[in-house]
Amino acid sequence: MIFQDEFRDRALVQNMASNILRMAERLKTPVNFMEVCGTHTMSIYQYGIRSLLPENVRLISGPGCPVCVTPIGYVDKALACTADPRTIVTTFGDMLRVPGSRSSLMEERAKGADVRIVYSPRDAVALAAAKPERRVVFLGVGFETTTPAIAASILEADKLGLSNFSVLASHKTIPIPMELLTSDPELGISGYLCPAHVSTVIGGNAYRPLAEKYKIPCVVTGFEPADVMQGIEMLLAQILSGESKVEIQYRRAVSWEGNPKARAIVDQVFEPCDTDWRGLGVLPGTGMAIRACYAGFDTERILTLDVPEAVENPACLCGEVLKGKLAPFGCPLFATLCTPESPVGACMVSSEGTCAAAYKYGR
Predict the structure, then answer these.
(1) % pLDDT > 90, the chain
(2) Would 168 be classed as within a structural domain?
(3) Which of 3, 52, 318, 355 has the fewest CB atoms below 10 angstroms from its CB?
């Protein structure tokens, strides 16, 4: 049965590729479609989606990896948290090897700092409950997908009366950066493969202002090869018919409304703020700050962190890669001085990073 399914899916993708080729022949000008989800980026590289497309249909990888867009200054704050031996820093695994200005969490752990990988923010809450004599800091990095779970962990810690648990918050929202990229004439974006995981929370309606204001097609797409190819078909169909609207290809997981309960939890704990994006700079209203009523769980409010001035590696071109203006292969460090074993930039570290995907599947 598995082999039959694989054969069927392969035939389906081949049929879609043929249809895309026929549709592309009717295009008056080349088109650039951007995916803004790291899982999409990984899938596109892994399955060789670009090799199935005609030359006038181009895929661009955008800032879809939350670890990658986290600025180096945040990493330095996380490293500062490790300076106190009474503090346990907990994090998702992708953050462990992201370079800061002078070190990384992995290097500090090797020197004796208590840095632990957890699979859920609730694991960090449980650790704080089990070790009341220690301060437990969770590194809250992510888009709308992970923010509800982190908000729930703060509510749980509050319910348990834990005074030794806090979050170093660096949460970001995706629609406004998409608008910024759309307005960049150098990129010339013709349509979006919208992020699937994020869309399960914010819903397809979140992209309607973008489609209506900029007259740009948007399709919320799944991650399988057939999903991505169908998403491209749907974008091309809109362009050929002169339409610009939001469609949901990934209907088995995404609705127009998203998850109102998850958003309600986020709204209870967080509020919008300006935040810094690697490669994009400070974008108004794209961050999520912990509300004052939960200030006791905000690491930056309760701890005095000695953070040196952030120093970027001038040779690292992650910022240009994240904006879609440079493919990984255009960076002189790619696969030479910058590899998954010895990363210079965050795009090579994260499992959803564009450079990591290109290194693993695109060479």
Answers:
(1) 92
(2) yes
(3) 3
Give yes or no for a contact between 200 and 145, defined as CB atoms under 8 angstroms apart. yes
Measure the CA–CA gap between 192 and 180, rounded to whole angstroms: 13
Q: What is the span of the domain harbouring residue 148?
A: 24-316
The 10 Å Cβ neighbour count of residue 339 is 15
Does 336 share its domain with 237? no
Token pair for residue 291?
């509300």
Distance CA 268, CA 307 (A): 29
- How many structural domains are present in the chain? 2
For residues 158-174, average pLDDT: 97
Strands 270-277 and 281-290: antiparallel
- Retrieve residue 51's tokens: 């090799």
The mean pLDDT of 81-97, rounded to a whole number, is 95
- Give residue for tokens 């800061």: 100
DSSP string covering 35-79, please?
Answer: E--HHHHHHHHHTTGGGGS-TTEEEEE-S--HHHHS-HHHHHHHH
Dist. CA 191–CA 239, nearest whole Å: 9
**Partners of 91 in the β-ladder:** 117
β-pair partners for 246: 218
Same domain? 345 vs 199: no
- The answer to whether 285 and 302 have CB atoms below 8 angstroms apart is no
Closest CA to 56 of 190, 200, 192, 196: 190
- pLDDT tens-digit readout, 16-47: 999 999 999 999 999 999 999 999 999 999 99
Q: Are residues 239 and 340 in the same domain?
A: no
Same domain? For 324 and 252 the reply is: no
Label the pairing between strands 115-117 and 57-61: unpaired
pTM over 0.90: yes
Is 182 inside any structural domain?
yes
Residue 258 lies in a domain: yes
Task: Tell me, yes or no, whether 303 and 356 share the same domain.
Answer: no
Average pLDDT over residues 55-82: 96
Q: Which residues contact 248 (CB under 8 A, 6 or more apart)?
A: 199, 204, 219, 220, 254, 255, 256
By C-alpha distance, which of 104, 63, 61 is closest to 277? 63
CATH number reported for the structural domain that contains residue 115 in this entry: 3.40.50.11740
